[in-house]
Amino acid sequence: MGNIINSVIQGIVEGLTEFLPVSSTGHLILTGNLLGFTGEKADTFEIVIQLGAILAVAVIYWKRILNLLGITKEKDNADERLIPAHKLNLIHLILACLPAMVLGLALHSFIKSYLFSPYTVLIGLVLGGVFMLVGQQKQAVVQAEDIDQLSYRQALLIGLFQCLALWPGFSRSGATIAGGLLIGASYRAATNFSFLIAIPMMVAASGYELLKSYDTLTASDAGFFVTGFIVAFLVALIAVITFLKLLERVKLAPFAYYRFVLAAVFLIYLLLTAQ
Question: For residue 7, which of 75, 81, 168, 227 is within the disulfide window of CB 3.0 to 4.6 Å?
Answer without folding.
Answer: 227
